[in-house]
Predict the structure.
Amino acid sequence: MADRMESVLVERCPDFIVVLDRDLHVLEASAALRSAVPLASPGREFALSLDEESAGRLIATLASDQEGTSRMPLDLIHRGRERLIPTIYRFYPLEHPIVCGVGREGASDAGMVDQVATLNRRYQESLAQLASLTGKLRELATTDSLTGLFNRRAFMDRADSEWTRHLRYKHPVGCVMLDVDHFKSINDTHGHATGDAVLQHVGALVRASLRTSDLSARLGGDEFVALMPDSTLEGAYALGERLLMRLLGRPLSGLEREVRVTASIGVATSEGCTTLDQLFARADRALYQAKQAGRGCVVKDQ
C-alpha cells in the first residue's frame, strides 16, 4: 500500500485515479472512482471493471512497459450510463508499478461536445455584452451627456480626492469658473438647439485647453469649472485668458448663421483656503466680478 500522504492524495482526488499492481489488482483508488466503478475497491481486480478491448490494451501495455508506469487512457463503463472516453488526469510517482488516471465526465457524444462549445461561446458573448453595458452605465453615471465633460457629482468626487492630495503634499490648486455670456438670449434668439450647440462648443474648447491631469465639468446650465493641480494663480489666469481668446477666435459656425460666443471667467487658487468649498467660493466671486466688469473678461480673485 502507499504511505499515508500518497494515499490521501489519491483518496481525495476529485478525478478518477487508480493505483494497480502487476496483476491488475487495485492498491489505491480515489473515492470518486470507487463511487462510479464498484470494482475499484482495494484488492479487487481492476481489469474486470473494463470492457474486453480496454482490458486487453492495458494488459498489452503492462507487458511491454519495463518501467512499470502507465499513462494509457482507459474506457470506463459506468453502471447505468453510456460509455465515457476518459483521458489521463495525472501520473502519481508512487512506489507502485502502475498509476492510471482517467477523466471524470468526458462525454464521447459529439453532439454533446458541440452543445457545450455553443453554450460556452454564448457565455463568453454574454460576458462581453455585460462588460460593454457596465462601461456605458459607468460613463452615463459620470459624464455630462451634452458636452462629454464630467457631470457635477463625478467632478466633486474627484475634486475631493484632489483636495485631499493637496492637503497632504501642499501643492497649489488652481480653479477656473466660466459662464457663457447672455446664454438665455442665445436660446431665445436662436433656439435651444443652437444653445446646445454653444454648450458643446464651449465644452470642447475647455477640454482642449486643459492638461490631462486637470479636471473639468459642466456644473449645470451654462456654467463650467476646471480644477488644476499644481497650478499657481498666474497659471490659472493664463488658462482663463487662453479659453477666452479661443472663444473669441472661433465663432460657432455650421448653423443658419454664425454665432459669436464670449464668456465671463473667474480664477482663484488654494492659497489661503482651508476647504475646497472656499476655493470654489473664491473662483465664483471672481466670476461675479468679471460679469460686473462688463463680461467677456477674466478676473483673478484677490
About this structure: The longest helix spans residues 110-142. The chain has nine helices and eight strands.
